[in-house]
């Protein structure tokens, strides 16, 4: 299987300039590889830097040192040091990201929110709406809500809208930050299905899943972020390979 | 997104005094791209915007623009009439205060039609029809086409100003705090409208704002200015979520969340 993401020596230190330039090291010298058609689960206790790593893979956070290279248009392309133009192109075509929170323009209808990534790739309204409807249906969002903006929806509903939006494009790389965090079992099962389908299509999935059941259902590989930090807590968890 | 920029800004400087104005600003802008310029009042945002839109000659530096005819021109090397022609036919300028961008003495329809006439359209029926269609696009009541903008609310005036600017299908639009004085509910509507129009018309936009939420929703890329200098640039979400510079960190952490 082809390598889709290659991380080498990745280090992140937050410097808080307005708090006496205090430095908060998050992780140091991370190496890992994510392959086509595999789901890599980032594992570690809260505060270990899982989200920071995931956000770095989306170029949302800027690494302090080290490199992240992704396969974009068939070529291994560096995210670190890339121009904004290249990053935007990579995000449009290659990397999808489902965050924990939905951030949208207040007045936009749910169907349009979900269809937007397809529209940005030049897909026509009818096709984009049809695909969006299909996903919303799969995720049990009742049709009467589709024309409403998701701002007033419950946490779980917003989360599902967010998931639909993330899965509407078949990205070669998909990053998931706790996509099942506020979902009930029925909906979590749908997400597990969507992840498996994506993986079978050849998508490299990298995700954070707190729910052990979901994690076990999708993980091909578990990557321990900052294992030294948690010697006294989760290290004995038997689900984690040594 | 196209590989060739539409605007290239190189080492642009316009100083009124040390730290007042803008200094050594360089960036490229691409078709379909919205570039946000953020920073506190007095940081040089508006000076920069005025220099870019050839309303204020810089002390130093160059701005190159790729015209509709696919020709690179040095903006401050052009004759004044050529500059004005570009402003009228290829650009739009949306002012913070609609009355700076509208003609308050003539009807809404005339405000939209006037820019079209400048590009050669003379047929009254066509002008009126286009004006109506644009009023519709920016969600203004067509029945009010013959009313003067003075009778419009602030939000309606702002939408009219946007219609007036976009009717000639500009390639590059400059916006100075377009949602500045507006009610929050009107702001959301306007943001949605702008975002749609930018996508549909593949506009390149430079938007000055001090509202980071507006920047996040509209701009793909940000320039953070302080004391006339660019202190940080990058993808909007990266600059706002992981700011590197002390000033950007202060700016981001000072936002009130509701």
Automatic annotation (TrEMBL), chain A:
Keyword ATP-binding applies: yes
Domain ABC transporter residue range list: 5-242
Superkingdom to which the source organism belongs: Bacteria
SUPFAM superfamilies, per the entry: P-loop containing nucleoside triphosphate hydrolases (SSF52540)
Keyword annotations: ATP-binding, Nucleotide-binding
Alphabetized GO MF terms: ATP binding; ATP hydrolysis activity
Sequence similarity: Belongs to the ABC transporter superfamily.
Protein name: Methylphosphonate degradation complex, subunit phnL
Organism: Amphritea atlantica
TrEMBL record, chain B:
Keyword Nucleotidyltransferase: no
Keyword Nucleotide-binding set for record: yes
Source taxonomy: Bacteria, Pseudomonadati, Pseudomonadota, Gammaproteobacteria, Oceanospirillales
Domain ABC transporter: 7-252
Gene Ontology MF terms in the entry: ATP binding; ATP hydrolysis activity
GO process annotations (BP): organic phosphonate catabolic process
Protein name: Putative phosphonate transport system ATP-binding protein
Key words, A-Z: ATP-binding, Nucleotide-binding
UniProt-listed Pfam families: ABC_tran
Domain of life per record: Bacteria
């Amino acid at each position: 299987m082809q390598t889709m993401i290659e991380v080498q020596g990745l280090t992140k230190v937050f410097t808080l300039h307005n708090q006496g330039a205090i430095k908060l090291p998050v992780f140091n010298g991370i190496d890992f590889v994510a392959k086509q058609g595999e789901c890599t689960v980032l594992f570690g206790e809260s505060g270990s830097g899982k989200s920071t790593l995931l956000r770095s893979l989306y170029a949302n956070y800027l690494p302090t040192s080290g490199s992240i290279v992704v396969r974009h248009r068939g070529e291994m392309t560096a995210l670190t040091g890339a121009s904004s133009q290249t990053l935007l192109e990579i995000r449009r075509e290659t990397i999808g990201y489902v965050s924990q929170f939905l951030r949208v323009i207040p007045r936009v209808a749910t169907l349009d929110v979900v269809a937007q990534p397809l529209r940005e790739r030049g897909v026509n309204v009818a096709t984009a709406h049809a695909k969006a409807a299909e996903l919303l249906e799969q995720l049990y969002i009742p049709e009467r809500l589709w024309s409403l903006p998701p701002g007033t929806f419950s946490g779980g509903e917003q989360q599902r809208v967010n998931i639909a939006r993330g899965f509407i494009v078949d990205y070669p790389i998909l990053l998931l930050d706790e996509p099942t965090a506020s979902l009930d079992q029925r909906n979590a099962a749908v997400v597990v299905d969507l992840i498996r389908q994506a993986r079978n299509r050849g998508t490299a999935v990298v995700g954070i899943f707190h729910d052990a059941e979901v994690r076990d259902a999708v993980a091909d590989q578990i990557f321990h972020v900052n294992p030294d930090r948690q010697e006294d807590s989760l290290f004995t968890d038997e689900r984690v390979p040594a | 997104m196209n590989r060739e920029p539409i605007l290239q800004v190189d080492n642009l400087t316009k100083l009124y005094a040390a730290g007042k104005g803008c200094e050594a600003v360089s960036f490229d802008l691409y078709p379909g791209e919205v570039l946000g310029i953020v920073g506190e009042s007095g940081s040089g945002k508006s000076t920069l915007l005025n220099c870019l839109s050839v309303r204020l000659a810089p002390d130093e530096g160059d701005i190159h623009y790729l015209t509709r005819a696919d020709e690179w021109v040095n903006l401050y090397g052009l004759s004044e009439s050529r500059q004005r022609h570009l402003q009228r036919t290829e650009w739009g300028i949306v002012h913070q205060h609609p009355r700076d961008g509208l003609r308050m003495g003539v009807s809404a329809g005339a405000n939209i039609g006037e820019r079209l006439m400048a590009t050669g359209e003379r047929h009254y029926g066509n002008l009126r029809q286009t004006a109506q269609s644009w009023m519709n696009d920016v969600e203004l009541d067509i029945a009010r086409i013959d009313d003067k903008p003075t009778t419009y609310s602030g939000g309606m005036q702002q939408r009219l100003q946007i219609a007036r600017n976009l009717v000639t299908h500009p390639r590059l639009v400059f916006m100075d705090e377009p949602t500045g004085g507006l009610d929050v509910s009107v702001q959301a509507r306007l943001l949605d409208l702008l975002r749609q129009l930018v996508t549909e018309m593949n506009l390149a936009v430079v938007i000055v704002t001090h509202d980071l939420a507006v920047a996040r929703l509209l701009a793909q890329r940000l320039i953070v200015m302080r004391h006339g200098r660019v202190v940080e640039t990058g993808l909007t979400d990266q600059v706002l979520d992981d700011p590197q510079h002390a000033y950007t960190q202060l700016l981001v952490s000072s936002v009130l969340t509701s």
